[in-house]
Design brief:
- By secondary structure, this protein is mostly helical.
- It has a domain of 390 residues.
- It contains 31 helices and no strands.
- α22 packs parallel to α24 and α26 packs antiparallel against α30.
Length: 687
């Protein structure tokens, strides 16, 4: 039985609970701006001129009863200042009494109007307005505090989650640790890499203090946060190095042990060594500091991971599979349906890897239960997050539009629909034709359709819950569901779904079966945050080091080895495809987008490739890279959620070369053909 209430483990108290509070704070800060906008609008409707009433009016100091005749006489008597050199140069001019009188009369009239306005505003300062104003100003201060603390929240979240991922052995690597040698090599190199991060951050802080530009107290505090975080991360890896688990077997080889080293460690060792060799030891710290320039984007990544982990705690994925089960589809067709349906939540969870982590285990289990062979189930699970990255409101597309003024989200999402249709069609053709073993003996529609309608009924409350949250934001806060509001709406939607399941479904099941161990809201939220904490640590640290690898590529001037413009768009596109796939193989999506924006994109534009076309190619190439060895990030995440035993069992299955490697080859064929079509067919029409 799971712990409930305040019975938490030490790691939950000091890791997942603070991470949950930080993520909730991000949602509150982002939502408070919507609330504030509505409060300003409501204040103006309740009290005309509310914008003037936000602060107490200040009484004018002028005299409304000024003697105009005396003032005119005094002004005329004053004349021109005798020692004014400019007046002496230009010559003096007698003041016109009529002009002087008119100016003074206008000043007196303005004074009386200002005093009348002051009296009117003071008369509107009712107790109700003061209470409303106090609440509105509090929200305004909350927004200002949230904007100022965004960078600190990100640093704390990254470091807290990175330490958790280290302590729980949850970093992303090419293979899991199976032997003591794997464990020792992995944590030794992790300790070295973390110490390298600590040293680079400390050197960056010292060089900032020694520069001619003054360092603000806020920047200095941010440096201190990075240093403290990497110090804790180094101690965590050192602690793990000397606390070898008992379940590891002996033996092993060095080559396999090196594959158990986390990807962020490899990236850190490469970039850190390069920067040290060129005499720029603070390089990693500088590029990690660049994360702060896009702190809202990286915090949104954390929110999307949280949304994905909350989705994992719900029954939504299983209920959706129940809708298609009455048709008794062959495994290949069910795999196609699973990948197509997964495209929508993929778009709403921000990136392909997040969805694989969230729903990959359910997809794999359901496909296996339907009779799918292991390789087919693994291939579909790895691809489940690949097709939806071009659909609204995917965060990756929003980041591309934010960094590149040549494109807009509407343009990218508009063409993204057609790219989705293409990639979905190619996957369906490959899955249903190559190595198809299942028979198309679908259930009769008279039998399957009523059962399908019956299976849709449990989904209706979920639709109503989602609609209620969306309508609430639309009607009360005037915020629609789009790519910009999704990061703050989706956590609220998932929390509402967890509340619904906790209050309704679990209570109903407990009454029916007498089960007292039903999932409570606190239990579901805690488990979701436990998973989130480790995943955020693994993903954001990997993302940060991807930015650092991008810095190595940038400083090594590797892109300058290629022409900065091509006479032929076809030649340029061929080079772009190769480069983009390689970047997708070795870098995280967000880090790769930053690098591509600074380097490859300008070459493409100069060579006559349309910006929208280029970024569509980039997205498809990245997804192909995530499915391509030697790294194949989506396959690594699939192995992480389905278990090492299932992957090993698949590798031991007999058959032809294709059948023994179907989980790798099938996605490569589908996405590879799609990439070629997306890259080169449009050139026929505009090149």
């Amino acid at each position: 039985m799971s712990k409930g209430g305040f019975q938490r483990s030490g790691l939950e108290w000091f890791s997942s609970l603070p991470a949950c509070l930080l993520l909730l704070a991000v949602v509150i800060f982002s939502t408070s701006s919507d609330i504030h906008n509505q409060m300003l609008r409501g204040g103006e409707e309740l009290w005309s001129g509310y914008y003037k009433l936000r602060m107490d009016p200040v009484q004018p100091t002028c005299d409304p009863n000024r003697d105009i005749e005396a003032a005119v006489a005094a002004e005329l008597a004053a004349g021109t200042v005798a020692d004014d050199p400019m007046a002496a140069l230009l010559g003096t001019e007698e003041k016109d009494p009529a002009d002087v009188r008119l100016a003074i009369e206008r000043a007196v009239a303005d004074c009386r109007a200002a005093l009348q306005d002051f009296d009117d505003l003071r008369g509107q300062l009712t107790p109700g307005l003061k209470v409303y104003r106090a609440a509105e100003l509090f929200i305004a201060d909350l927004i200002a505090f949230g904007l100022e603390s965004q960078r600190f929240v990100l640093v704390i979240l990254v470091m807290l989650c990175a330490v958790t991922a280290t302590l729980t052995r949850h970093h992303i690597a090419m293979r899991a640790m199976e032997t003591r040698l794997d464990y020792t090599v992995s944590h030794t190199l992790q300790t070295i890499a973390n110490a390298m991060l600590l040293g680079s951050s400390a050197i960056f802080r010292q060089s900032s203090l020694g520069s001619a530009t003054a360092v603000s107290s806020e920047e200095l505090l941010l440096h201190n946060f990075w240093i403290a975080g990497f110090a804790c991360l180094t101690l965590a890896s050192l602690y793990r190095l000397f606390r070898v688990p008992e379940d590891l077997r002996g033996g092993g080889s060095l080559n396999k042990a090196l594959l158990a080293v986390p990807l962020y460690t490899v990236m850190c060792l490469i970039s850190g060594s390069y920067f040290a060799l060129i005499g720029h030891a603070s390089g990693i710290g500088i590029y990690l500091g660049k994360m702060m320039e896009l702190s809202d984007m990286f915090l949104n990544v954390g929110l999307y991971v949280w949304v994905g982990m909350m989705l994992k705690q719900t029954h939504l994925a299983t209920l959706v599979f129940n809708v298609f089960r009455p048709w008794r589809m062959p495994p290949e067709m069910l795999a196609v349906v699973a990948v197509l349906v997964a495209a929508v939540p993929t778009a709403y969870t921000g990136a392909s890897g997040i969805f694989v982590i969230a729903a990959g285990a359910v997809i794999y289990t359901e496909l296996r239960a339907a009779g799918a062979r292991r390789h087919l189930a693994l291939a579909a699970t790895a691809m489940s997050g690949s097709l939806g990255v071009v659909l609204r409101p995917c965060l990756l597309v929003v980041v591309i539009a934010y960094l590149n003024r040549e494109v807009t989200t509407d343009e990218l999402f508009g063409w993204g629909i057609w790219v989705f249709v293409l990639t979905a069609t190619m996957f369906a053709l490959v899955a249903l034709s190559v190595n198809r073993q299942g028979q198309f003996n679908l259930a009769p529609s008279a039998e399957a359709f009523p059962a399908m309608m019956q299976a849709l009924k449990p989904l209706i409350p979920y639709v109503l819950v989602i609609a209620a949250v969306v309508f609430f934001y639309r009607l009360v806060l005037d915020v629609g569901m789009d790519e910009f509001s999704a990061p703050r709406l989706l956590p609220v939607i998932m929390l509402a779904i967890l509340v619904y399941e906790s209050v309704s479904l679990k209570n109903r099941r407990r009454k029916a079966s007498g089960d007292i161990n039903h999932k409570r809201l606190e239990w579901s939220l805690r488990n979701a945050t436990n998973d989130t904490t480790a995943e955020i640590g693994a993903l954001l640290l990997l993302l940060g080091l991807s930015v650092s690898i991008g810095g190595v590529i940038e400083r090594a001037h590797l892109m300058e080895a290629f022409p900065q413009a091509f006479n032929s768009a076809w030649s340029a596109m061929l080079l772009m495809v190769v480069i983009l796939v390689i970047l997708g193989m070795i870098m995280d999506a967000f880090g790769a987008v930053i690098l591509v924006t600074a380097t490859v994109a300008t070459i493409a534009y100069s060579s006559g490739i349309h910006p929208v076309h280029f970024w569509m190619v980039t997205l498809v190439a990245f997804e192909l890279g995530y499915l391509s060895p030697p790294v194949a990030l989506n396959h690594l995440l699939t192995r992480q959620v389905v278990g090492e035993a299932e992957v090993l069992a698949a590798q031991q299955e007999a058959g032809t070369f294709y059948q023994r490697h179907e989980r790798i080859i099938m996605p490569l064929i589908a996405m590879g053909i799609s990439l070629v079509l997306v890259a080169f067919v449009p050139l026929i029409f505009y090149a």
